[in-house]
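ok here's the first one, seq then struct tokens
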Amino acid sequence: MIYSLSIFLIFLGSVFFTSQKFVDTETAVKFYYTIIVVLAGIVILMLKHCNLRSEAQKLTTILTLKGLFIIGVLQAIYGILQYTGLCTSNHRFFAITGSFENPSGFVAILSLVLPIGVYWCLKSKGWEQKLVFIAIGSTLFSIVLSGSRTGILSAVISILIVFAIEFQLFSKLKNLKYSIGIVFIVIIILLFSVFLLYQLRKDSADGRLLIWEVSFEMFKDKPLGYGYNGFQANYMNYQAKYFKGNPQSIYTQLADNVKHPFNEFVKIAINYGAVGLVFYLLMLTVIFWKAIKIQASIRGMLLGVFATFIVLTSFSYPLQYAPVWFLLAYFTLVLFSNSAPNKRLSLLTIVSITVVCITGIFFLIQRLSKEIEWKTIAVKSMQGFTEEMLPQYQMLYPHLKKNAFFLYNYGAEVYVAKDYKKSITILEECQKQLSDYDLQMLLADNYYQIGDTDKAIQSYKHAENMIPCRFLPLYYQFEIYKEVGRVEESLKIAQKIIAKDVKVNSNTVEIIIKEANNFLFEKEANS
């Protein structure tokens, strides 16, 4: 019972904890809580010096699985309350986010625990079965309300798999006519589901095709990978290169800032190359093969969970979230619990694991405190105390210099303080970890302020190529060309602004187009 309660509380915190004390209010606190508590739990197990197999089996009971599903149902109810307006969403563009920053984490959790609910429903009876059925319905309803096509597809596939295993449909495939019929029906259902989901948000789906096409170019250039954070540091530069070479691309209006390829396989291939991707695929193959071969009543549930994860990794970014890592580790433990060595660890192994875990805990606590401090000074800077906060930013720099978002924030605050050369130095360091539209625009502003108009125009052009549908990069080039007296370039940019398709109407865009029109009218009148 104590083991089930421990797993329940860890997962509960990893899903629901949020804190305004962090810059990343939803994700960061979940990460620190989950990792620190798990490491502490490992230390306790090491100090108990218990038998590995018996401890693994205590952690992987049906009661624990039911607890995980209940937490998922609570998250689903939270999402429904957000949709009705009784609770506030964490993102202004999405009605449902649960306790996450956007629907991706929310849907990942619901999808991964859904097979548990389906299995529980099939194995229970009476009022318990009815309650679980209602809970499953609430979970599915919440996934549909979120509008996540990936969540809907993964839910359909996981339910089909659990039902197929529980009703032994695969064992009946020995009958040729029966097998052909089943396979045909499954293919039709999947193809129809994919078609409907594609039509649901066609532009979004096409946008992902752009990301994967550009990512393939990245992979061709460096098949051995770009290293940790390689995608985030390099993708937008490649997207700029793509649009520079394809100015009339059908994807022009779909481009945006991209920090993840919406496919974990692609991200691993970009960051760690072909070797990393092969290793990842082998690991998944071993897990799937073990799940297929396992002789246990929960085989269908486990296959449903791992199939759900594959769908999520193919169209989203579930590995961004600590509770997903926790669930994966837990379900893998369930899968291999009977295969654990039936013996105690050696004293040297226990001491080594304990030292590593305790060291990790202290490191994470220190990092956690620095992130809380960052939030405090960031808020004060936004309140108008930028000059006073800069020394504290400098003190935090050695601890958070590997955090691209800290570097961007630091560079932006230094820009506000009008120390443009220092801002450029910080942002150029940030660019090694994160290169995107916002960074290029801020760099361009800095270059302009120090009088380096050539570099400013270069950065504005790079930002324009990154996201061709934006008007501001063109407008600022237009203003600089006018200021330095380069009339021909000003005319070309003005004509480009007027001919540009408007993706989203706004007062800013209308003003930019009006100024370009006035400029052309004046030049024509004077010629």
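and now the second one, same deal
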Amino acid sequence: MRRTRTLWLAFASCLALVLAAMAWISVTAVRSDRAERQANRQAAAEEKIRLALVEMDSALLPLIVQESARPYFVYESFHPLDNVYTRIFRQLRTRDVLVASPLLDFQSPDILLHFQIGPDEALRSPQVPKGNFLDVATDGYVTGERVDVFRERLARLGKIMDRPRLLAMLPAPPPPPASTSRPVARAAPRPDQNVPVQQQATLADLNKLAATRARRQFSRTEATQYLNTANAVARYLANDQAQLVGNLAFHPAVAPAAVAEGPLRPCWIGGALLLARRVSIGDKQTLQGCWLHWEHIRAQLLAATRDLLPAADLLPAPADEADPHAYALAALPLRLVPGPVRQDLSDEPSAAQWSLLIAWFCVLLGAAAVAVLLGKAVSLSERRGAFVSAVTHELRTPLTTFRLYTEMLAGGMIGDEDKRRGYLRRLRDEADRLSHLVENVLAYARLAGPRSAAHLESVPLGDIVDRSRERLEALCERSDMQFLVETDPDALGTAVRCNASAVEQILLNLVDNACKYAGRCEDRRIYLRTETRDALAAFSVCDHGPGISRADRKRLFRPFRKSAHKAAQSAPGIGLGLALSRRLARNMGGDLRCEPPSDVGTSFLLTLPLAGD
């Protein structure tokens, strides 16, 4: 018992060590797997946010490029023709025609207003012409309603405009390029050069080519064509071609004012999103830019990235409130709030988790298998020890009887003939008991070894009963029991596929157990009943003994279950007969079981297959 306890304690210690190591490995692996999953989710979210930012910046790029490319002079509602060429062809100088700004009738859902703050700090817009230019603009370029809309926006912008703050946000323009003096062709001054503004503007339609192409380089052919058009306009106004031709001459170059345009920068002023820049014209500085339609841009950008970030939002990000950890756009001072990012990664167990589950299953299965094998080995060792003690006890009793009775008979100590016969019968019973014990042990040893096919034959049920009756009756007679056979006459001729010797040994073990345990009862009858049930032949051995308890029924068919102590307290035997009988029955394709307990006695049922089934 002490060795068994030590063995189980060593097994429990080893198992606890293995489980602790497995638990540590599992916790470490799960943490690593969770960290990797979180990193993958974060990387996927960051990738979606990055793509959304790139897509938003790409959508804003054409707007930024378009506004950055606008020349400084288009921020006037009407500008002199020489401004169109001053920065392109410095050879051409003419002041006869005014050109309408392309911003005068400009329409874009992304821009509310273009504005300009001159050296006089007055806020103007090319979309809100003043004085005589208003009549010209509404006559052929833009409707009065649109001018009113722009005027109202200009008034709103004027309430929130902060020129010193805007200047502080914008970088200074680069130094203007050095001007050169060269001969230029220009028209000589004429007395009627100051043509009324209305007449000049009515002919500005002829000059729209210049306004629409003011942002790109002219070819020499296009410049010549436009110069011819301008001269034709001048001749029309002067109505004196001869005088105009006489006044055309080459004069020394008059250097235009040096112009330097600063980079366009986005900024927030009073809740308005502006694109603005500094422009230096000579020694004077002007602010130019546009007022962006922030809500429309926000809705457009969010709609374009809805597939990536369905719950995203855009918020203003003023320069003085910039967050270095925020997701900011590069084109505009906006901060992206991504919101909950939809994860496309699966939540199914990963390969590491499946590996851990399989490892735990294998470890637990191995531990269970080792525990079962260890339990079986310990149980077998204990039962073998009990078997040895029981066999020793069972052999010592008859051997003692043999020695005592043979010495008495050999020494002539028994003179009475009847006593001598009684002693001889006792010696015969003990010999039969030893023979039965040895037969059971040898039979069980044969079945416990490598199994060989049982020798089965078809035997009539009645022949099995007749063959076993005489031996069973003699066994019951020696125990002072009454053996009764109850058979179904219709079943006696039914052939049973079995080994007749094995069936006889099973019945002998069952009847022997009944004689041992029911020998002290008042009803000393033992029944052998035979019948057929479906495709089986059934043999029932019943007695009227004390029965079997529920606890003993669980261990009834275990081999070597009875120790010497139990054998001394109960009927003699080593607890091998029922285990042997069940193995013999199952080896023949049948079974042996103890039937549910009734009020009195015990009943064992042996079933065997019928021949031909």
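notes on #2: The chain is about 50% helix and 15% strand. Confidence is low (pLDDT under 50) at residues 85-96, 180-228, 230-255, 563-569.
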